[in-house]
TrEMBL record:
It comes from Pseudoalteromonas neustonica. Residues 15-240 form the Solute-binding protein family 3/N-terminal domain. This is Transporter substrate-binding domain-containing protein. SUPFAM superfamilies: Periplasmic binding protein-like II. Pfam families: SBP_bac_3. Transmembrane segments: none annotated. InterPro entries: Solute-binding_3/MltF_N. The lineage of its organism: Bacteria, Pseudomonadati, Pseudomonadota, Gammaproteobacteria, Alteromonadales.
Amino acid sequence: MFSLGFTFTCAAKPIITIFTEQFPPYNFSNKGQLQGINLDIVRTLCELSQVECKFELLPWARAYDLVQKNQLSGLVSTARSAEREDLFYWVGPLVSSRTFFYRLRDNKHINPTDITQVSAYTLGVVRGNIYEGLVESIGFQQDKNLLKVAHHYEYMNLFFKNKIDLILGSEFALDYQLQQFGHGGKEVVKLVELPVNTLQGNYVVFNKEMPIEIVERFNEQLEKLKAVDNFDAYRHRYVQ
């Protein structure tokens, strides 16, 4: 029995809620079915750890707030940073990829060649997203050249209407984001990589009141799962 009065027995599996957001290919809803590279990994970890997990898709800011308030809850995928370190228990890293700035192919006048030049243009980000602080640290400012929105589709819509100059996208995620707007990768051009040296990859996080035995079980099973093929089987379901 745990100190918080939480009993872990074979007869009654612990039930936890894993919050997630629409961020393909890592976690997303496809015709009502929640899936994705990291979500599939976490679902497997739940089974291996003998924990019943319920997944709930929410906007990022809402999910990030709820996981800090609900004892038996987690959140996937969460970028690990110094500012967030003490807020959660961490299980990972899971799967992630490099992030770049992109422009529309026709906008040839937008052509920064290094990170010091990108803030000469306008950019959209999701409010509360890990990228928000990173782009502000390299010169982007709200109400000047940085537009903060609640959902990815808001800035993507403005981007394709030539209302903002740049978007950010990870190498794995961008094609999925573009497909949601009926576009493919040919419409955009990869520019400068966003330095993410302060980040440590994508994780599933748990509320700090989660029984530590559950967290330890997840980390133990994650290491075993990663040792099989470094998550290649999960990655190849969504990224060729």
